[in-house]
Amino acid sequence: MDEFRFEITEEMEDERIDKCLSLLIDSLSRSFIQKMIKEGSVTVNGIPVKGSYRVCAEDSVVFCLPKAVEPDIVPEAIPLDILYEDDDVIVVNKPKGMVVHPAAGHYSGTLVNALMYHCGDSLSGINGVMRPGIVHRIDRDTTGSLIVCKNDLAHNCIAEQLKTHSVTRRYHAVCHGVLKEETGIIDRPIGRHPTDRKKMAVNEKNGKHAVTHYRVLKRFSDHTYIECELETGRTHQIRVHMASIGHPLLGDETYGGRSAPFHLQGQTLHARILGFCHPSTGEYLELDAPLPSYFVHLLRVLK
Questions:
Q1: Which residue of 50, 95, 195, 265 lies most exposed, with the fewest beta carbons within 10 A?
Q2: Catalytic site residue 139?
Q3: pTM to 2 decimal places
Q4: How far apart, in whole angstroms, are the C-alpha atoms of residue 7 and residue 13?
């Protein structure tokens, strides 16, 4: 059982205990914290509290978090669109709607389930049993290139390239509105949204350095087809950055604030180009994932 201990500061005084803990532990949802409070896992000054309790300065809060029991992940015969494969890595073209790795509510039908069937035991183990081989990820409704590592040596090599921003990652997207400039750079820090912990946001105070380069591929009457290249790789980076300049991605209800037209399922975003140095040979490889059929059809409709 993990134990979190906090001393309440004056800035947090009179906040509800559940909100206070959700700010202190941003990896846990407020609803989960409320459940733990009901189960008696939270004490203040040694006394179990209710969710309505409002904290006082210098309160001593202890949160006992039970160890998570990781379920068995079952290999599933799900077809994979493989762009490249050898003994070290496999690059797949992920379809829309597929979650990359198992998590609460998604223990089957994920890319990991498919990879375990295809690769057997040949996946790196650095990220644990829930994320074998996974060194980076893309959102459920984002399509395109994803590199998966088959051994720990390859995993460490690709992870280092991601850390130093030497992996080429170029995405194709359609955004709302017509961009005036042919190219642009968005350099705005990204962090957790201050009130909605499930979202990210431009956060000048607590955000991490984030840079996106974009260029116009084609303009339509009300939309723009663009290519975005990641200089950094923050969660939801392209989606947050484009929304921050008033051009959210088409279909992105989370950051666009609009219902999806054209019967879209989530944001129109495709990881097209993925380039990296091979972990064994050092050779630079660059893979091009063709646009999915829905994206091609949408471009025809917009034209």
A1: 195
A2: yes
A3: 0.78
A4: 11
